[in-house]
Design a protein that fits this description.
The structure is a single chain. The protein is of the alpha/beta class. The protein has a domain of about 150 residues. The chain is about 55% helix and about 20% strand. Strands 2-1-4-5-6-7 form a six-stranded antiparallel sheet, with helices on one face. A six-stranded mixed sheet has the order 8-12-13-3-14-15. A hairpin with a 2-residue loop joins strand 14 and strand 15. Helix 2 packs antiparallel against helix 3. The chain is elongated, with a radius of gyration of 42 Å. The two termini are about 25 Å apart.
């Protein structure tokens, strides 16, 4: 539900903080008081079109924040998560905010995180649905009719199964197509494949071989200098007494007097002992290194030839040397496709056809259930027509078979809501054959029937009662009150019968302050609400009879 609406510097509203409650809230006020400004402001927060004219004169920018309190599984959270925006904590609060500069530039935020206006609008569409006399509404969008019919007829599991069958078919079809294309390509390149596999198999590349050969070649190229250095190092260790002898002699001198030095020679003696051991180890390592480094022209030539062959093959296939084994495996796999006679491709094609048949079966079953549900939906909406002064009107759900090119996850049907306004005239799309007032009441009838099936939690009706009064207005109010049992309903109305049915009442007024015209809004209760409904009944001059009639309307709205 919509919890709070915070507005700053929007048209005539300088500052407004409005709290909303669950149920049915009536928004009333004299013509021109600014009720539409509230809807324009909320539209900003919902990502609708922003125009510089909405910024209050003299202000640098307008801002609107709408706070919603939602169940944890609401679709808005999944939509935000798909864009990397985390859901709120346990309170389920979601704040949509929009700023609009005097230059017409706007910025959008969700829970204080910057987002694109497109995402803000998509989130807003899951939260609020606005119905006015001439606005384009979701119920008029044929793309939404199939989903609404499925929801009305409780076909969610069937629709989900059909969608799963569709995706399974398309996935298998893509795999079969890729296999067929791969087989065709392999057959065109069979000679090349056989030659390449034979060539690489004969070469027998190994991962890491390039680095090993490069190291061996470097050693051979410098074997002379390295050997000379090793011999010189060994000679230096053997010069004179030799390092071993010198260290041993020094250690013996200290050992003779160590007992009389009070332990002060222990560290030096340990160092000499370690030096002797390290020197012996160094001599052994020099001998081993010298044994492994011998100039071998044949080995050098072999390493260079192998490196040349590996690198030439890598250049030919456009890869690093270490990826040659991977290339060989890939080429062998392509060749195997030819050698198995395309059996794998045929199996995938058979799987794709089996999944196509499974999808068609699921889609036909769903279509049969849709046609049964369409009859029920048509009868239910038509039954709502008479109380709304649309007694001669009819409503039907038309279902057509879509061409295979138009099949999709939702099945093989095209679904369209149609109305017949006058007997004898062919039915047609709602927005093509109904006037503004008729269209608004059609929408109300549809919403009354679809209330439990449509997940949008906030419904806003802008003068849906225009042009009607008396019993029809009372019927409109009754249906709005019924909708409020399944969703939060906000209604901009000039009808006292509709306003009296509200659980809550907000009056919008215009006044002059400090030479400027400003719009304000205040909740009404008790005598103030009676007075407002009396004004709606009688006009500027409120009589006692009007007050009594207002009290009667309010009493009737709460009667069991």
């Amino acid at each position: 539900m919509l919890g709070t609406l915070t507005i700053r510097d929007v048209v005539l509203i300088e500052k407004l903080d409005l709290d909303f409650a669950p149920g049915f809230t009536a928004l009333t006020g004299e013509t021109g008081a600014g009720k539409s400004i509230l809807l324009d402001a909320l539209g900003l927060a919902l990502g609708l079109r922003a125009e510089a004219r909405l910024v209050r004169a003299g202000a640098a920018q307008a801002s609107v924040a709408a706070e919603f309190r939602l169940a944890s599984g609401h679709a808005a959270f999944a939509l935000l998560a798909a864009h990397g925006i985390e859901a709120p904590g346990g309170d389920g609060a979601l704040i949509l905010r929009r700023t609009l500069g005097a230059d017409g530039r706007s910025r959008a935020f969700v829970n204080d995180q910057p987002v694109g206006v497109g995402l803000l609008r998509n989130v807003g569409e899951t939260l609020v649905e606005i119905h006015g006399q001439f606005e384009s509404q979701r119920l008029l969008d044929a793309a939404s009719h199939r989903g609404l019919l499925d929801a009305f007829a409780a076909l969610g599991p069937d629709a989900a199964g059909t969608a799963a069958a569709w995706h399974g078919w398309r996935e298998a079809e893509a795999q079969a197509r890729a296999a067929a294309e791969g087989l065709e390509k392999a057959r065109r390149e069979e000679d090349y494949l056989r030659h390449a596999v034979e060539e690489l198999s004969r070469l027998g590349p190994r991962v890491g071989e390039d680095a090993e050969l490069a190291s061996a070649r470097a050693i051979q190229q410098h074997a002379g200098r390295v050997g000379e250095a090793l011999r010189s190092a060994s000679a230096d260790l053997e010069a004179g007494k030799g390092v071993d002898g010198a260290l041993a002699s020094a250690l013996r001198h200290l050992e003779r007097v160590a007992a009389h030095a009070g332990g002060k020679l222990a560290t030096a003696m340990a160092a000499l002992a370690r030096a002797g051991a390290e020197t012996a180890e160094a001599r052994a390592q020099l001998e081993r290194a010298g044994a492994g480094i011998e100039l071998d022209p044949a080995a050098l030539e072999a390493a260079e030839e192998r490196l040349f062959a590996l690198r030439a093959a890598a250049r030919k296939h456009g890869v690093e040397v270490d990826r040659l084994p991977e290339v060989l495996l890939s080429l062998q796999a392509d060749l195997a496709v030819i050698e198995d006679g395309g059996a794998a491709a045929r199996k995938l094609a058979q799987l794709a056809e089996a999944r196509r048949l499974a999808f068609v079966s699921a889609a036909k079953d769903l279509s049969r259930k849709r046609r049964a549900g369409a009859l029920g939906l048509g009868l239910a909406v038509t039954a709502e027509m008479a109380p709304l002064k649309l007694g001669k009107a009819g409503f039907r759900v038309r279902i057509e078979d879509a061409s295979e090119a138009d099949w999709g996850p939702a099945g093989c049907d095209r679904v369209l809501f149609e109305a017949e306004i006058n007997p004898g005239q062919p039915p047609g799309p709602l927005n093509k054959i109904a006037s503004g007032g008729e269209l608004a009441r059609f929408m109300l009838a549809l919403k009354a029937v679809l209330a439990g099936a449509d997940p949008v939690p906030v419904l806003i009706f802008d003068e849906v009662d225009a042009g009607v009064g008396g019993a029809v207005a009372a019927a409109v109010g009754e249906r709005l009150a019924g909708l409020a049992r399944a969703a939060q309903v906000l209604v901009v109305t000039h009808s006292p019968q509709v306003a009296a049915r509200g659980d809550h009442h907000v009056r919008v007024a215009k006044r002059t302050a400090k030479g400027a015209t400003v719009t304000s809004a205040e909740p009404l209760d008790g005598p103030a609400r009676v007075e407002e409904i009396a004004r709606m009944l009688a006009g500027a001059r409120i009589t006692e009879e009007a007050r009594a009639a207002a009290q009667s309307l309010l009493a009737a709205s709460v009667a069991p």
